[in-house]
Design brief:
mainly beta; Maltoporin, Chain A
């Protein structure tokens, strides 16, 4: 299987060399071939090495991977035993970057790109999933403490969580529709502090941060309880004027988690979270505007006012309440029931419209799991379902220089998603493991146009779809695994695509479907010190949905025929120095993608075989982490991103860029109960001028959103153990 991975890399690389004449791409492909060869050499010579359970964390050496249990696909297995392209972002990794956001931490994951166009506006791209995402998060199913954070309309407000709410971050790359519902881009499983680590000590903590562009942030938390019940209350507030004009932001977030245990058989948990945030939207610039003044907001053009004149922004309030009941009936059978309710209230003045969205929704998820042993074979079975229902109202008015004018449209949108799933896992002697499962989907959307008159009703029901998955893995000994994973994805259009900013209901969009083929391996080599994670994939998507933006800045969407997405992703980590008083760890993360359209024609133009816009063909991130006597730490991160095509014609590209970030930590134990830490960092040390979160397929050439040049932050963290 490992030989197949190597030849997969080589074939993809040779194809790329034939199609690209650029020097940088030749270098990239040579690196891939050499890396594949070296890994094959190591595999071939290390299979016979006996290993102990001393696995290392994915980037920093402190935590051992042998202790990390990941619940992806409901299989509570060590990360080194998961038979899929899964990446676990530990708290140690999350905490090596700026405490004010997790963007840089997420971007260490190979194949994943998180972008921040203004202080509270995020876009998440997993293997090109942002093709349908001009902003926000689309085509990725996200859960928080097991609760669906993605609403039944297909949207996710990732900004409703603060970095303090996220203790761990697990990404399943590729379709997860066999168990997690609609989506072809991937799945993200996030857990709060208590859900990841319910043995937290009783404590109170506070952190204060200041930084460039008038960044100010205050966070506080208190944890109390005992072995049978634990509670945590968190607050965070942030304000910033932003790097560009019209990018000011402020937010207030309050979160509560509780875990109650009744012996070993029952656990009940509560998640409650409230968000109140505001952030301005600067709008994208043309290339000439970007070169002239990258800090500027979108200027007036023709009859359209500027972003500042129209006061483009988002006023956002989110409320989430969920309950999770886990019950062990006996040694073989256990169940899990989740019930949640959520409400989002969005006010969004744009260049063209002044939009009001009210999005109440609720739902639940249940799972039954049975474990049995048949001779030398361990078998596990899962059955369950998920259901979500939303009652949305979307009202658009004219934007009269930052005030809501005459009403243009008023629509009620009732949407429903349902999923039934089954999964079985068999662990055989000699280290073989086979997992098979399937999800059965149903989706419907009902539109009622209240204005303009007369009242109209539209209903869209998508055919029931089946999304199967099969995974085969083999333990290689010494904490290593090789796997083959084949999964199918299904994703109906999101409400934001059926009813985009153009305010015209598009009932002609069809669901996306796709099949993903993966070969991968992860584990430890070289006396259990070198951690590696490598996978190669082929993903074919049909009826893919692509975004368009007209000259007025309004979005609309079309089915883009199909896509062919090939790629290789790799991660390596190795301790250069490992001593009880000091350590130096090196890690690197990279991805190479060849994403292209197939059978794609729009308005008489054939874009077949063109690159998909919005995704870099090559990304490389590496870092050094130095720790001295648990008091002083330094973290250096380097990022390179290749140029990105910005439209279907591939005649406009965002430039490649290099980033260098530095963070230094000092920790002091004032007493047995009182701890103090001072954290300071500098981002973009090279003072690189680059665009992050580019708009794609835009009429008028407004592609560019300038990212901050060199900037800094300083944070004081205080913790008291009660």
């Amino acid at each position: 299987m490992l030989i197949l991975i190597y030849y997969f890399c080589r074939v993809c690389s040779m194809e790329c060399i034939m199609q690209h004449n650029g020097y940088s791409m030749r270098i990239v492909n040579r690196v891939i071939i050499i890396t594949g060869s070296l890994l094959f050499f190591y595999f071939d010579n290390c299979f016979s090495q006996a290993g102990t359970e001393t696995a290392r964390d994915s980037i920093v050496i402190k935590n051992t991977l042998s202790e990390v249990i990941v619940s992806a696909y409901d299989q509570n297995k060590k990360i080194t035993r998961q038979p899929a392209a899964i990446f676990y972002l530990s708290p140690v990794v999350i905490n090596r970057f700026n405490p004010a956001n997790i963007v840089s931490a997420v971007n260490t994951i190979p194949g994943v790109q998180m972008e921040q166009r203004s202080p509270q506006s995020y876009r998440l791209n997993i293997r090109g999933s942002a093709l349908v995402s001009p902003f926000g998060v689309r085509n990725v199913k996200i859960y928080y403490n097991g609760i669906p954070l993605t609403d039944p309309g297909g949207g996710t407000y990732l900004n409703e969580l603060s970095p303090d709410d996220i203790y761990s971050f697990t990404v399943i790359k590729g379709p997860g529709a066999s168990l997690y519902g609609a989506g072809t881009g991937g799945v993200v499983l996030m857990d709060g502090p208590l859900f990841s680590h319910d043995s937290l000590e009783n404590s109170a903590g506070m952190s204060m941060e200041a930084g460039s562009d008038d960044l100010q942030r205050l966070a506080a938390n208190i944890t109390w309880g005992n072995d049978q019940q634990k509670n945590q209350l968190r607050y965070s507030g942030m304000s910033s004027r932003g790097y560009r004009e019209q990018t000011a932001a402020h937010s207030k977030m309050l979160g509560y988690e509780a875990v109650f245990k009744k012996g070993d058989a029952q656990q009940f948990s509560i998640t409650a979270h409230y968000t109140d945030l505001y952030y301005q939207i600067p709008g994208a610039l043309t290339l000439a505007e970007y070169k002239s003044d990258p800090r500027a907001a979108r200027p007036a053009a023709g009859n359209l006012p500027s972003a500042e004149e129209n006061q483009t922004a988002v006023f956002q309030k989110n409320l989430l309440l969920g309950m999770n009941e886990q019950y062990r009936f006996n040694d073989h059978l256990q169940g899990n029931l989740i019930i949640y309710g959520a409400y989002s209230d969005i006010i969004n003045p744009t260049i063209f419209n002044y939009e009001f969205r009210k999005e109440p929704h609720f739902g639940g998820r249940f799972t039954l799991n049975e474990n049995r042993r048949f001779g030398n074979t361990l078998a596990s079975f899962w059955v369950g379902g998920e259901w979500q229902r939303g009652y949305f109202n979307v009202t658009d008015h004219r934007n009269m220089l930052g005030a809501a004018g005459n009403m243009k449209t008023d629509d009620n949108v009732n949407n429903s998603l349902s999923l039934a799933f089954a999964q079985a896992d068999f662990t055989f002697p000699a280290g073989w493991d086979i997992t098979g499962g399937a999800g059965f989907h149903h989706a419907s959307v009902d539109f009622t146009t209240l204005f303009p008159a007369p009242v109209k009703h539209f209903s869209v029901t998508y055919d029931k779809a089946i999304s199967p998955r099969i995974a085969i893995s083999k333990e290689l000994g010494g904490n290593r695994i090789a796997y083959l994973n084949i999964s199918s994805g299904y994703s109906p259009p999101a409400v934001s695509q059926l009813l985009p900013s153009a305010s015209v209901i598009n009932t002609n969009l069809h669901p996306e479907t796709g099949v993903d083929y993966e070969l991968g391996s992860r584990g430890l080599l070289l006396d259990q010190k070198l951690y590696y994670d490598i996978d190669a994939f082929i993903f074919n998507l049909t009826k893919s949905i692509a975004t368009r933006r007209d000259s007025s800045g309004q979005d609309y969407f079309v089915n883009a025929g199909g896509t062919r997405q090939h790629g290789v992703e790799a991660f390596l980590s190795y301790p250069l120095i490992l001593h009880h008083k000091r350590s130096l760890n090196f890690w690197m993360s990279g991805s190479w993608f060849d994403f292209r359209y197939r059978n794609y024609e729009v308005t008489g133009k054939d874009y077949s075989n063109n690159k998909l816009p919005g995704t870099s063909p090559f990304t490389f991130v590496s870092g050094l982490d130095f720790n001295l006597d648990k008091m002083l730490a330094a973290h250096v991160t380097y990022t390179y991103k290749d140029q990105i095509p910005l439209n279907d014609a591939n005649d406009v590209f965002a430039s490649s860029y290099n980033l260098l970030d530095l963070r230094i930590d000092y920790h002091a134990n004032i007493s047995k109960r009182f701890n103090l830490a001072i954290l300071g960092g500098i981002n973009n040390l090279l003072n690189e001028k680059y665009s992050l979160g580019d708009d794609i397929n835009v009429t008028g050439g407004r592609y560019y959103n300038a990212a901050p040049r060199i900037n800094f932050y300083l944070s004081l963290v205080i913790k008291y153990l009660m």
